[in-house]
Amino acid sequence: MSVTQLRAGGAPSPLPRITADLLLQKKLGRHPITAITAYDYPTARLVDQAGIDMVLVGDSLGMVVLGYENTLPVTLDEMLHHTRAVARGLRHSFLVADMPYGSYHASAREATRNAIRFVKDAGAQAVKIEGGSTRASLVHRLTAAEVPVVGHIGLTPQSVHSMGGYRVQGKSLDAMDRLAADARALEDAGAIAIVLEGMPRELAARITAQSAVPTIGIGAGPDCDGQILVFHDLFNLTFSPPAKFSRQYADGAQFFSSALQRYRDDVAERRFPSDAESYHLPREVQSALAAARPRARQA
Ligand code: KIV
User: Fold this and answer.
1) Strand, coil or helix: 170
2) pLDDT in tens, 144-176
3) What residues contact residue 138 under an 8 Å CB cut-off, 6+ apart?
């Protein structure tokens, strides 16, 4: 049993700890990489037990967990807090943490200090940053500081204002070439994987074929080396219509709502808690109480 398998409390995982090298081996062996987001300890436990390769503490946290309108307000402290919770739940999956908007934009020095916190204080095995060629020097710098970096190109939600909304990217020949060049620049700078979001299947296939590092797609078709979805999309927990690219595997909203309604009704009708769900006095205290009762009545 390795030390890393014992990182979280409880029983060790029967599966090995996923590393960046194992992700690369999966690409080379043409075994699809499975990835999903998680934001807290119980979901991390479930995802880990399901044998998912990669867990991303995405800044989608801001929208699906914290109720922000977009990902821009998410803070470094919020991301660190949730990354720590997820790290405590993982024994097997590779843990990537999203660097939030503003935490890597002002200066390379500040970005490096913030990235190191994800690894040193929060237990991440890599950080993810959005952007292509413009981020290459930062990827190089973080890699030199022993922080593995996952790139993220295409529809990058932190650029919602500069993109003019959440739009599929790379739909013209020029845009395709630009995104392919972005992927190459990230790879050359040392990125260990690249998320391809919101782009035509044909472009994602081209980037995947040209890349020596794994590509992880979301809204980028089936030809990427792996796929990632947002946990709350998978379980219909976003309170909004599903995107074209996502698939609901269970109706979590219906499941939780019906349980909550039954709980509310049981309390309102005094069906919960039952006697069996209650604590009782020890037998000898009950007897002493019963014996004292007639005396109390006489007095
Ligand atoms: O924040 C996030 O969840 C992401 C994924 C959509 C890749 O960046």
Assistant:
1) coil
2) 999 999 999 999 999 999 999 999 999 999 999
3) 104, 108, 111, 129
Domains and CATH numbers, the chain: 5-250 (3.20.20.60), 255-298 (no CATH)
What is the distance, to the nearest Å, from the Cα of residue 110 to the centroid of all Cα atoms in its chain? 24
Give the pTM: 0.93
The first and second tokens of residue 181, run together, are: 């060049």
Q: How many angstroms separate the CA atoms of 215 and 152, rounded?
A: 9
CA 16 to ligand 1 centroid distance, Å: 25
Contacts of 36 (CB under 8 A, 6+ apart): 47, 52, 54, 55, 56, 228, 229, 230, 231, 234
Residue 91 sits at φ, ψ, to 5 deg, of: -125, -25
Quick check: 6 pLDDT over 70? no
| Nearest-CA residue for atom 8 of ligand 1 | 58
Pocket lining: 34 vs ligand 1, CB cutoff 6 Å: no
